[in-house]
Amino acid sequence: MHIAIAGNIGAGKTTLTKLLAKHYKWEAQLEDVVDNPYLDDFYNEMARWSFNLQVYFLNSRFRQVLQIRKSGKDIIQDRTIYEDAQIFAPNLHAMGLMTNRDFENYKSLFDLMESLVQGPDVLIYLRSSIPNLVSQIHKRGRDYENSISIDYLSRLNERYEAWIHDYKGRLLIIDVDNINFVDNPEDLGSVINTIDAEINGLF
């Protein structure tokens, strides 16, 4: 089984991925932010490094998805390959931070990859307001995220909502503004109950 967690920067994807992996004894596939050689440069000079960063993420997640299906294990994935192509790259292009040439090249590469992979069995979308995202980003204190603007987060949120609105697979939406699954066991239990109901309906 392949479960994936989607959501904007700071929505709590990695934290929830780890908590659910522990609860269900699933294997966690986390987003590569520690070893990513482009993130610092990207946030300092977005237009220069946007294409490089997006191709790096695309490569990393394509590799992940192939491994997930090949493994035959129950795996929970932090962010999907679709978010890069449907949200982040188009947003950079629309903001003038990725050239037409690079964007077309990127889209062509994604289309090829998409034809070779399957989507997750269940997608969990963490919906969050901008103030909550800003609070979470400040709380975790990653230096390279200090330059993220509210405008950038807002644009991403709009694209997430549009993508989720048209999403065709099995989908769970969790509003994370008013819950704290890290410090409140009841909130985590509520999330787990919702997932249990969805997963049991799969089989």
Could you please describe the fold and organization of this structure?
This protein is α/β, with parallel strands linked by helices and 203 residues long. The chain has a single domain (2-200), classed as P-loop containing nucleotide triphosphate hydrolases (Rossmann fold). Helices cover 57% and strands 12% of the residues. The chain contains 8 helices and 5 strands, in the order E-H-E-H-H-E-H-H-E-H-H-E-H. It has helices at 13-24, 39-44, 46-71, 81-94, 100-114, 130-140, 150-165, 185-200; strands at 2-7, 27-29, 75-78, 122-127, 171-175. It has a 5-stranded parallel beta sheet, with helices on both faces. Helix 3 packs antiparallel against helix 4 (81-94), helix 3 (46-71) runs parallel beside helix 5 (100-114) and helix 4 (81-94) packs antiparallel against helix 5 (100-114). The longest helix has 26 residues, at 46-71.
